[in-house]
């Protein structure tokens, strides 16, 4: 309530819209305290005063605006008492004291006007008075407030004052605290710096989109003050440093490097946005010269530094660093973390490091390297040596080489960055150069940066020759194989084909392929015939090849036993180029429908990949798990994992598992009855499957889609060639036991009984050889019952199919279909039961087919669980979507929601995208704002 407002008789209150109540951005405690007071006063309580005292830029004004919106929502009249700000024009002249009668008269006039306006509101509703920036108000105005507060002490009025902490001892601050002591008061503040989650929430609120990790890293680096975060975001947007794609805001230029890559860059922080650099340098400029100089030397040591190292670099006692380091901590530039100090965020460190002149930076790196070598900390010294060592310095190269070899298994990103910089120093004919190049390529392969790995390996092989480059060639072949270029990979190792040492290359590379070529099988047999002559890794690879061969031959139990034998032999940690037999085990367990065991194995695969830092394989566990979830009938979770797997595959440039991932999407879309989506995903599979593989999977999916859209006769055109070939027919059955009944049913519907018999005989042979695998036993009996129209033959098969929900539902449907001519009532019962099962896991297409069968029997009914929903709005959300929306609106992260609902974070993300679309919103902030 400014003086101008009083003298003009109060302009209408500027009440924030109720919709403006957004996420609390880390101010939950303060807002809860204010809302409690609002509720108490609204319920008949007396006047209360809130004093919010905090530093400039900490979010006082934002908190007042949120309080005003809350009060308006509770039926309060909100009086805007915001005072003129120092930066918004000429400050109001402050009156030092009440000198003379004229000043008393003026206070009386201001108080009378204020009281009259508040009394007018109080006749109808309680009142909130907000006064921001008390430090800029005239003392006469504050005295007038004091008079009114005393008179209206029993009235339902909440007074909120915001004061900059820097002015707490100034006349305005002292007067405010003097006035408040005479009333019921609550003091809030100082407001703590925003947490990481609160920063993300605030950025989402400003940009109306989700920030990516690069944007978040910058925003978290400006001290946690809301004003600084908002100023940075607006500056980045104004200077066109941000791009928006798919509701996600990213940095427009090359991503900011992090971790070791940024530590070994020749020009630190060169890719940081200028707006961010200006803001951080402005903060640094407020520090003393001594503190800035200490921070510059500390920055050369790294984003983390022990105080004793800093003291040694400066030639001082540790105690002499107390003052400058404490100043830097208070300014939010550094923090203490155990035995070390850390820069608040990595981008801040890069800005500080960038303030050190290049020549001095090189000299300081040399000083640091010497110190660390003397301390026998060679790994840390290597980081500094890449900045200061001269070309051909063998001592420096030796230290760097040992460091990268030690870092490769646990920190491939660090190893790649350090080895790549080391190559700039190594001599062209140095043996160390080959080691550095091989390590860098191996690390890049692990990280999934296959393009960079191939380019670096190809370049270095032009410079290196002979046996010393064999390992480098192996890693080049591995990178080529992983990105689907099998022909090029074979060319790389072709000239070593007759060498005994080529066996591991051939085995380890080809275990990534879904096909077991005769030459690979022969090599595997040779290895296993003389196991003592080969390493555990090679023997494990050979056993994996043998397990797959046994599976293709229908020896399922032996195949699983062989994978277990390979798992026991595999090295730990395994080379990234070795196909871990765990993968094969998970794949096989899914096909024999031991789904819980399959999920446990997939989790073991995921954990192994994470522990060994093999980002290149991040799509693999998603592909394996998506298949299991599809069989279990969790279509949303299967689609979410498959989609996430495709994204991971695209990031790493590894198409090896895309066929399986896209197959899951095709099947899920077919189950739901979305033929357009199924067609789109099938085309994606056909265009992206490496080397034209896998032919059989494409045929099966194409036939399923054709059957759904055009009928059985056309579907058989896709299947006939597969069914007529014995090997392909066996593989069709082994790929998915539940596909047997579908294939038999399709062949019979098309009038091709002979082809139906071929399928049934094949699955019976497999089931007969593997009676312990109930899913194949069920498939054999199911197929035979369909072929012979034997209702009794279907009895007892539900339990044999186990957790394969679609197979069970189709079994019940087949039972109802076979009963139509002999027992209508039971047929209706079974078809209803089948429809219920289809509905339970969202198989709308299959449920619709059953409804058509029921209509032919004279039964007209709608979807078993049908519930009409609008296309948009809260009522359009499914039960699961509503649960996800409620939890996200309450502030839970995707991972927390996943834990709460027993699903994966990818599934939560899938549901969130549907929620955003149906509610026409773009972010979690929007969801929290509109949640009922």
From TrEMBL:
GO MF, one example: DNA binding
Keywords assigned by UniProt, alphabetized: ATP-binding, Nucleotide-binding
GO cellular component: cytoplasm
Pfam families registered for this protein in UniProt: AAA_16, GerE
Xref: CDD domains: LuxR_C_like (cd06170)
SUPFAM superfamilies: C-terminal effector domain of the bipartite response regulators, P-loop containing nucleoside triphosphate hydrolases, TPR-like
Gene Ontology annotations of biological process type: regulation of DNA-templated transcription
Domain of life: Bacteria
Residue ranges of domain HTH luxR-type in the record: 870-932
PANTHER family named among the record's database cross-references: TESTICULAR SOLUBLE ADENYLYL CYCLASE (PTHR16305), TRANSCRIPTIONAL ACTIVATOR DOMAIN (PTHR16305:SF35)
Protein name (Swiss-Prot/TrEMBL): ATP-, maltotriose-and DNA-dependent transcriptional regulator MalT
């Amino acid at each position: 309530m400014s003086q101008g407002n009083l003298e003009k008789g109060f302009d209408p209150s500027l009440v924030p819209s109720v919709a403006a109540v957004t996420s609390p951005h880390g101010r939950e405690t303060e807002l809860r305290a204010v809302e409690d007071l609002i509720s108490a006063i609204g319920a008949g309580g007396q006047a209360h005063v809130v004093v919010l005292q905090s530093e400039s830029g900490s979010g006082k004004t934002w908190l007042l605006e949120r309080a005003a919106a809350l009060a308006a929502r509770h039926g309060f009249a909100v009086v805007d008492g915001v005072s003129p700000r120092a930066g918004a024009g000429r400050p109001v002249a402050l009156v030092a004291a009440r000198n003379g009668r004229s000043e008393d008269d003026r206070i009386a006039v201001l108080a009378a006007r204020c009281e009259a306006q508040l009394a007018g509101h109080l006749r109808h509703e309680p009142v909130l008075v907000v006064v921001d920036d008390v430090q800029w108000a005239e003392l006469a105005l504050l005295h007038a407030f004091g008079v009114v507060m005393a008179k209206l002490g029993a009235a339902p009025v909440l007074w909120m004052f915001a004061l900059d902490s820097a002015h707490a001892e100034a006349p305005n601050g002292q007067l405010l605290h003097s006035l408040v002591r005479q009333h019921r008061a609550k003091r809030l503040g100082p407001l703590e710096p925003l947490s990481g989650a609160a920063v993300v929430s605030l950025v989402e609120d400003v940009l109306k989109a989700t920030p990516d990790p690069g944007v978040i890293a910058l925003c978290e680096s400006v001290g946690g003050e809301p004003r600084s975060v908002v100023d940075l975001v607006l500056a980045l947007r104004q200077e066109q440093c941000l791009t928006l794609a798919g509701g996600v805001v990213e940095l427009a230029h090359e991503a900011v490097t992090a971790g070791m890559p940024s530590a070994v860059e020749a020009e630190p922080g060169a890719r940081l946005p200028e707006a961010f650099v200006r803001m951080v340098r402005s903060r640094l400029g407020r520090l003393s010269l001594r503190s800035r100089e200490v921070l510059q030397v500390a920055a050369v040591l790294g984003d983390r530094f022990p105080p004793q190292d800093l003291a040694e670099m400066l030639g001082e006692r540790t105690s002499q660093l107390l003052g400058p380091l404490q100043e830097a901590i208070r300014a939010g530039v550094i923090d203490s973390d155990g035995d070390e100090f850390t820069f608040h965020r990595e981008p801040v460190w890069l800005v500080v490091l960038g303030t050190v002149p290049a020549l001095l930076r090189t000299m300081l790196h040399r000083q640091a390297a010497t110190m660390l070598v003397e301390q026998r900390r060679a790994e840390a010294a290597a980081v500094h040596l890449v900045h200061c060592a001269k070309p051909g310095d063998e001592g420096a190269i030796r230290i760097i080489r040992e460091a990268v070899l030690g870092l490769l298994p646990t920190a491939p990103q660090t190893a790649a960055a350090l080895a790549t910089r080391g190559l700039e120093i190594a001599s062209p004919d140095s043996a160390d150069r080959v080691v550095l190049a091989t390590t860098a390529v191996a690390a890049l392969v692990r990280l999934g940066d296959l393009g960079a790995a191939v380019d670096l390996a190809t370049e270095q092989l032009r410079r290196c020759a002979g046996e010393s480059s064999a390992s480098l060639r192996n890693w080049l072949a591995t990178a080529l194989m992983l990105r689907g270029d099998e022909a090029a990979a074979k060319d790389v190792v072709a000239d070593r084909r007759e060498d005994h040492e080529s066996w591991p290359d051939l085995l380890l590379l080809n275990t990534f392929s879904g096909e077991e070529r005769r030459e690979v099988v022969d090599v595997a047999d040779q290895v296993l015939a003389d196991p003592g002559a080969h390493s555990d890794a090679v023997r494990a690879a050979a056993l994996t090849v043998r397990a797959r061969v046994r599976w293709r031959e229908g020896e399922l139990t032996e195949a699983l036993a062989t994978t277990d034998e390979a798992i026991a032999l595999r090295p730990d940690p395994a080379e990234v180029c070795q196909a871990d037999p765990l993968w094969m085990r998970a794949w096989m367990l899914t096909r024999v429908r031991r789904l819980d065991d399959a999920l446990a194995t997939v989790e073991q695969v995921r954990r192994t990949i994470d522990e060994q830092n093999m980002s290149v394989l991040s799509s693999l566990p998603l592909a394996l798990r998506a298949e299991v979830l599809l069989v279990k009938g969790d279509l949303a979770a299967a689609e979410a994992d498959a989609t996430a797997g495709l994204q991971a595959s695209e990031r790493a440039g590894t198409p090896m598992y895309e066929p399986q991932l896209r197959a899951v999407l095709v099947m899920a879309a077919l189950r739901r009855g979305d033929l357009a989506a199924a067609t789109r995903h099938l085309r994606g599979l056909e265009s992206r499957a490496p080397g034209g593989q896998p032919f059989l999977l494409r045929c099966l999916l194409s036939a399923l889609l054709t059957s759904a859209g055009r009928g059985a006769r056309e579907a058989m055109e896709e299947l006939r060639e597969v069914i007529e070939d014995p090997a392909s027919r066996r593989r069709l059955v082994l790929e998915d036991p539940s596909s047997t009944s579908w294939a038999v049913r399709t062949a019979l519907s098309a009038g091709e009984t002979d082809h139906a018999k071929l399928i049934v005989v094949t699955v019976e042979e497999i089931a007969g050889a593997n009676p312990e695998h109930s899913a194949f036993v069920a498939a054999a009996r199911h197929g035979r019952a369909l072929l012979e129209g034997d209702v009794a033959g279907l009895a007892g098969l539900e339990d044999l199919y186990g957790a394969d929900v679609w197979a069970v539902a189709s079994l019940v449907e087949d039972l109802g279909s076979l009963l139509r001519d002999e027992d209508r009532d039971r047929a209706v019962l079974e078809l209803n039961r089948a429809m219920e099962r289809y509905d339970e896991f969202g198989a709308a297409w299959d449920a619709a087919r059953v409804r058509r069968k029921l209509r032919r029997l004279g039964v007209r009914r709608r979807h078993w669980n049908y519930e009409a929903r609008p296309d948009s709005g809260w009522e359009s959300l499914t039960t699961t979507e509503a649960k996800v929306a409620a939890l996200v609106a309450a502030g839970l992260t995707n991972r927390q929601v996943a834990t709460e609902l027993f699903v994966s974070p990818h599934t939560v993300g899938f549901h969130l995208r549907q929620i955003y679309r149906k509610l026409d919103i773009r972010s979690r902030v929007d969801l929290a704002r509109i949640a009922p």
